[in-house]
Amino acid sequence: MSPLPDPVAVSGADPLELLDVAREAAAAGAAVLARRTFEGLNAVNKSADGDWVTEFDTAAEQAVREVLARRRPQDTVTGEELEDSVPVHASGIRWSIDPLDGTTNFIRNIVYYATSVAAVNDDGDWLAGVVHAPALVRVYSAARGHGAWLAEHGNVRQLTGPDPEQGGRLLGTGFSYDSGVRDEQYAALPALAAPFADVRRLGSAALDLCMVADGSLDAYIERGLNEYDYAAGALIAEEAGVRVQRPPQPANDAERLDAVTAAGIVLPE
Questions:
Q1: pLDDT digit string, tens, across residues 117-130
Q2: What is the pTM of this model?
């Protein structure tokens, strides 16, 4: 069994130091999600039918931010539910948080949801990322230049992406809350899915990307994602040796509709 890379105590923006922080922060958010009870959800529709937020989303993001504030007080923090935190003397590192990726799954007690935490520098280089899925008992992690890893039920293994010799290829995807974008996605799906044996829509972009990294999926593509949806998962897939394409960072509204892709095979144009 290959061990996880040991974080080292160095200053600045060392990816392994940031990975250590990301693990602790994501674990804090996931611990909030693990306390899920049906009565305590208090789900509210945010902006579109199916676009939900619960008290757990906010509480998990607060828990993540508390760790980041304690361990990296000069870093900028952006997230899905709370306002940006920008120190007066910013360090050049920014954290992108999705405290509960897969909120609809969480509400309906479907196990594909996670806390996602990732760090990027001012040059746009993603340095560390963790996707912690408490209901799956899985922790995916990566540090730039140090590979991607999965800890599951006490076992740890390095991730190397899909097996190119494996048959029955699976494509992961998702669909927008915006009905116009969703109609375009439906129309494009037959051509997109043609090289694959089947398609999966699991409801969490972060976990979809991680499952390309671990070889459960052969490719993933989705339009209209926010940065926090893919921040950690895209780095984890990349460090597993998977080709990843992201929208420009930072992206304007039009560029955000560019597809995020992670593929062990060549996707059709």
A1: 999 999 999 999 99
A2: 0.87
